[in-house]
């Protein structure tokens, strides 16, 4: 089963480390968080609060709110238009995606 | 914060308007939710065979950067990553900004552009299912491939140009197919209707086509596409455009894994077997519509003109609306693309300057002519009946709009 | 097809929208009141064109149904933004 999303080129941009559901990832400083996630092969950003299904980027420009996540403690931030920075902590609101919470439960 | 003019939207029309107004003595603030100015220009990168040889490559990001640099250099206040969540009175613009929570202005220019019409397909909510605009932005602006193997559903001028951009970026585009034939996706996507719309893309025939067939073949492009109906598909840039296949559903447990496709007759009836194709991303294209949410809250009159893309603020030939001090420019007035948006930005600016007792760098009449010129020079025709739409609009304005 | 999602924000599927039309809804606000389309984060930006298309094809005769009109705030805001 193929599945990948990846960077098209390596550029001179400054790289940064950030966290998605406790996982350390590399991104570019200033690019939207959603772009960093997609570049790391991550398509699922959250789950639908009503149906439980996986959701990710849809419109890419801030109209649909499908890409929303908790960023540095602020909930429902649109990752498609929020610049990524060194040390940012991003969390899906659903604990089943948020690996850290599950660990705490046991 | 107090300015003469507040502009919502830092796309091509908003930035152009800002530059024209600040150059002629007004104070201007531009507000945009996105993290950088440029609007939809940011994702655009294609070759325009209609343009002069030295203007053939349209790099939207460069154009956006130039506009931003000029605007900032002249003293325009540009707020990015700031949401104008409400406008009231004349004019208080409420912002989601840590320090400046409101801008007060004499005039408001709405340049909020357009949004994408969604194309619903069973399974479309799976991660990997994205809009064609998102595909364009991620490919050209963020430089990230949205999938290993990508299918495009919806064959129209925009999706065709994005397919070319993705292929040029080295992404494996498995093909383009028709949308589902269903009540939820409208009933104008049969092969015959799709082909009729594709003639509008003749202005954007890929360079590779011209190199292969010569520039005189540009005139044959529409007829070639019509003939392609008989041969089931057309290949552009090596990507099959399946004019006789429609997507039925998207499959996958955690994210997009495959699609089911169905062959259809020229008038859209299913024929033959369904087939399964493994892909991990599907880009959905169903057109654009003007983004009028803020406009609706101002109380200005709006009208529904399908030829222009849907509901738009009723406006006059000089970009005024039914509310004094409220102007519009860009795709909010009808889907016409960046070149027209830029000309409309300048036209709105010159009108605003006039309304505040100042002169612009050109007259309103000259700005109107520039807009007509831009209309003719647009490489991409998003909507086939723009001229009818504009005629309808002008008739409505004459009847209902003049203040 | 009937369990296809129409309103992504509220998880409303096609069969619910069609039921609302059966129930007598002949406008987008009418469907919104019955099944919550357009009440989520996107305020109909994604689903309204779809619901409109469904209504127009169901009502037939070139009928133009009434559409949902945006209200303030046009984007979700936190209380702090309003109170300040």
UniProtKB/TrEMBL annotation, chain A:
Keywords: Oxidoreductase. The keyword Oxidoreductase applies. It comes from the Bacteria. This is Sarcosine oxidase subunit alpha. GO terms for molecular function: iron-sulfur cluster binding; oxidoreductase activity. InterPro entries: 2Fe-2S-bd_N (IPR042204), 2Fe-2S_ferredoxin-like_sf (IPR036010). The keyword Iron does not apply. It comes from Virgibacillus profundi. The lineage of its organism: Bacteria, Bacillati, Bacillota, Bacilli, Bacillales.
TrEMBL record, chain B:
The keyword Acyltransferase does not apply. The keyword NAD does not apply. Residues 4-154, 234-345 form the FAD/NAD(P)-binding domain. InterPro entries: FAD/NAD-bd_sf, FAD/NAD-binding_dom, Metab_Enz_Cyan_OpOx_G3PDH. Keywords: Oxidoreductase. GO terms for molecular function: oxidoreductase activity. Pfam families: Pyr_redox_2. This is FAD/NAD(P)-binding domain-containing protein. It comes from Virgibacillus profundi.
């Amino acid at each position: 089963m193929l599945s990948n999303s990846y960077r098209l080129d390596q550029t001179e941009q400054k790289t940064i480390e950030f966290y998605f559901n406790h996982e350390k990832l590399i991104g570019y400083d200033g690019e939207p968080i959603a772009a960093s996630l997609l570049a790391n092969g991550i398509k699922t950003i959250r789950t639908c609060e009503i149906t439980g299904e996986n959701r990710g980027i849809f419109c890419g420009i801030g109209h649909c709110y499908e890409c929303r996540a908790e960023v540095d403690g602020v909930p429902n931030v649109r990752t498609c238009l929020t610049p990524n920075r060194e040390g940012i902590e991003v969390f899906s609101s659903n604990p089943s995606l948020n690996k850290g919470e599950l660990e705490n439960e046991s | 914060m107090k300015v003469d003019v507040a502009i919502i939207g830092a796309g091509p029309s908003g930035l152009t308007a800002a530059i024209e107004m600040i150059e002629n003595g007004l104070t201007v603030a531009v507000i945009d939710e996105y993290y950088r100015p440029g609007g939809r220009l940011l994702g655009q990168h294609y070759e325009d065979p209609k343009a002069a040889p030295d203007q053939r490559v349209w790099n939207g990001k460069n154009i956006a950067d130039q506009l931003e640099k000029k605007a900032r250099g002249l003293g325009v206040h540009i707020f990015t990553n700031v949401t104008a969540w409400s406008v009231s009175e004349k004019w208080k613009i409420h912002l989601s900004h840590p320090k400046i929570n409101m801008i007060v202005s004499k005039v408001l220019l709405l340049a909020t552009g357009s949004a994408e019409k969604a194309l619903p397909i069973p399974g479309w909510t799976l991660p990997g299912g994205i809009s064609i605009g998102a595909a364009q932005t991620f490919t050209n602006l963020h430089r990230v491939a949205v999938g290993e193997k990508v299918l495009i559903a919806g064959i129209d001028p925009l999706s065709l140009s994005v397919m070319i951009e993705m292929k040029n970026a080295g992404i494996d585009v498995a093909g383009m197919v028709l949308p589902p034939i269903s009540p939820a996706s409208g009933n104008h996507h049969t092969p015959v209707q799709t082909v009729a719309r594709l003639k509008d893309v003749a202005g954007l025939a890929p360079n590779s086509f011209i190199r292969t067939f010569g520039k005189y073949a540009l005139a044959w492009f529409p007829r070639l596409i019509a003939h392609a109906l008989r041969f089931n598909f057309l290949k552009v840039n090596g990507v099959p455009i399946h004019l006789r296949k429609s997507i039925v559903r998207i499959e996958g447990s955690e994210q997009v894994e495959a699609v089911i496709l169905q062959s259809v007759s020229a008038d859209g009836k299913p024929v033959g077997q369904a087939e399964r194709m493994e892909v991990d991303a599907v880009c959905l294209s169903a057109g654009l519509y003007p983004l009028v949410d803020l406009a609706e809250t101002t109380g200005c009159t709006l009208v529904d003109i399908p030829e222009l893309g849907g509901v738009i603020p009723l406006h006059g030939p000089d970009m005024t609306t039914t509310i004094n001090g409220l102007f519009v420019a860009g795709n909010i007035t009808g889907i016409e693309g960046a070149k027209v948006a830029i000309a409309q930005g300048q036209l709105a600016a010159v009108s605003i300057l006039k309304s505040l007792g100042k002169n612009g760098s050109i007259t309103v009449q000259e700005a109107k002519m520039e807009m007509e010129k831009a209309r003719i020079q647009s490489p991409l025709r998003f909507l086939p009946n723009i001229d009818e739409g504009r005629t309808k609009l002008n008739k409505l304005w004459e009847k209902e709009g003049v203040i | 097809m009937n369990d296809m999602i129409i309103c992504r924000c509220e998880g409303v599927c096609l069969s619910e929208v069609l039921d609302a039309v059966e129930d007598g809804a002949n406008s987008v606000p009418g469907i919104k009141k019955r099944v919550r389309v357009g009440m989520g984060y996107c305020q109909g930006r994604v689903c309204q064109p779809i619901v409109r298309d469904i209504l127009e094809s169901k009502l037939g005769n070139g009928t133009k149904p009434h559409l949902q009109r945006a209200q303030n705030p046009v984007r979700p805001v936190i209380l702090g933004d309003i109170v300040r």
